[in-house]
Design brief:
Arc Repressor Mutant, subunit A, two-stranded antiparallel ribbon, 8 helices, RNA polymerase sigma factor, sigma factor activity
């Protein structure tokens, strides 16, 4: 296969690779970079492609391996090696374990806010929270579905207002 024929075939197959790149990276720009890296590697290694085999499968394999290599490189770059006596590997990503006291206080506040809701709003809200569908809540409480939706909306709005202090902590 000539370089021109190979380039033409690459161009035809590249359109089917974009969704796969998006699935791997979950980002449009990263997917475009991955696709470009794959095409470059395929073109520079075209002599390794065996004529008559599945070009699409060959490109998918190149893309998957390129993604894995880039991912491993990124993880290594974000890993700090502690050279103290214990020799711990510490991941330097912004991960931390919070004190459980904060969570306990937050849950107490959330529970108190829910308990302070008017019963007309609290009941449908809690049923929805527990997994009931709108039509099931409407049937159980014998009220119209629009009323159920409205009461849940009002309950959420009230809870958001009462727990506003927690939105500033992020």
């Amino acid at each position: 296969m000539t370089a021109l024929e190979f380039t033409y075939n690459l161009d035809q197959v590249s359109k089917t690779l974009r969704p796969f790149a998006l699935r791997l990276t979950r980002d449009t720009e990263d997917a475009n970079d991955l696709l470009q890296d794959t095409m470059l590697k395929a073109f520079t290694n075209r002599e390794k492609y065996t004529d008559g085999t599945n070009l699409k499968a060959w490109l998918y394999t190149i893309m998957k391996n390129t993604f894995i290599t880039n991912y491993q490189r990124m993880v290594r770059r974000k890993t700090f090696i502690d050279t103290t006596d214990n020799l711990h590997y510490i991941n330097t990503a912004d991960n931390s374990t919070d004190n459980q006291a904060y969570t306990t206080f937050a849950m107490e506040d959330i529970t108190q806010a829910i308990e302070s809701l008017d019963g007309a709003y609290k009941t449908p809200f809690m049923m929805h929270f527990r997994g009931f569908k709108y039509h099931e809540i409407a049937a159980k409480l014998e009220i119209p579905i629009g009323t159920v939706k409205n009461r849940i909306h009002i309950a959420r709005k009230e809870l958001k207002r009462m727990l506003r202090v927690y939105s500033r902590l992020d």
